[in-house]
Structure formats: C-alpha cells, structure tokens
Amino acid sequence: MKELDALKSVLEAEREVLLRGHVSDIAPLTRQKLALLESLGPRVGKRGIPDDIKALANRNAALLEAAARGIKSALTRVSDIRSAMAPTTYDAKGGRQALSVPNPQRETRA
After folding, report:
1. Which residue has the higher pLDDT, 64 or 108?
2. For an engineered disulfide with 63, which of 14, 18, 36, 53 has Cβ 3.0 to 4.6 Å away?
3. Would you list the domain boundaries of the chain?
C-alpha cells in the first residue's frame, strides 16, 4: 500500500528530526501521520499495522520521551540559575533562605 510506505517515510523523517533536536519540526509530521493513519484505518482491518511500522513508531516514541525529559531538565536548570541570582543565605538548620535587601533610600536633610 502506498499509505504504508508514506507512513514509513514520515516515521523515518520524524526520527531524523528528533535526532537532530529540531523538536519544533515535529508538528507537521504528526499531522501527516494522523492523516495517513486515518486513511489506512478501514483498509488495514484485521491485519493491523505491520510490525516494522510498529517498531519505527515505538522507537520514535522513546526518542520523544527522551526529548521531553531533556527539555524538562533544561527548564529546571534555567529556573535554578535564575533563583541563584537572587541573594540567599542559610538558616540555622542549613535550609536556603531568601536574603532581603533593603531598598536604598536617598537621605535628605532638612
């Protein structure tokens, strides 16, 4: 079937995009996959999706999960860096505590 070959090509393209880290290019490929799966739905029938295509999809799912973990880790790191910019100190029990910095006010003499 032409659709199965097209689906296989989209899955290969998706893998390349994920390996290169171009996560923003996933959306158009996802739309293509959905359209192909919808067109295949009634024709695949009892046979189901071939094992090689299932294997490609599972491989890409693992890559997507790894990309999501990497993005989450990067966001956590950026948050940690931003919070480190605020002055902090430690309390008697060793816990972090925000250090309040007074607002400098201009003194005026009357």
Report:
1. 64
2. 18
3. 2-87
